[in-house]
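Take a careful look at the protein record below. Let me know whether the structure tokens fit the sequence:
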Amino acid sequence: MKQFFAICLIALNAFSLAYASSCTCSGKRTYDDVAAAIKGTKSKYFGNGEGFKFALCPGGPFEEFVLSNSNADRAIFSGGKFCGCVTHEGAQRANGFALCRND
């Protein structure tokens, strides 16, 4: 039963990642296909130290994926569901984040 649950969870995460939305960071970098932009990258825990409220995700825990071609931009997910994007550019503090626009 545990294996079945794990397979279902993996399938659900893959489904959600496949249907991730798009976002624009710092008004200049647009990611039309977030799922493609994070393909091949590994996730890590996103602590949300800024206390962002993601309209698509009511709460965490959150994971961040580095968006391709940028060390500053991240896609944020919770439970395999796309929440939004953040960037280091324009952050209020060093190593902090600012929200990107969901398209």
User: Anything to note?
Assistant: The helical segments are 2-18, 34-38. The longest strand covers residues 81-87.
